[in-house]
Amino acid sequence: MTSPQDNERLIALSSLSLGQKAKLMAFSFDTEHGERIQKAGLTPGEKLEVVRLDPIEIKIRGYYLSLSKHEADHIKVKLLKTP
Hints:
Distance between the termini: 28 Å
Number of strands: 6
CATH topology: SH3 type barrels
Strand order of the largest sheet: 1-6-2-3-4-5
């Protein structure tokens, strides 16, 4: 279970910059889009990196996935600190 403080730190995947890394925390889609996203391997807890911005392309589980801005708007992530 997440606390209200945890929810405040979640941001939309679409707001990340090139090269930023994050942990996928949640997504809010209708059934059709949510099912497609899950089949593509996006599940809570997975780490990802933004490798392109237009369209938004992420590296997750060792492969690259392109997403529309609309899709990325509905994916909530927690930004990972880089060393």
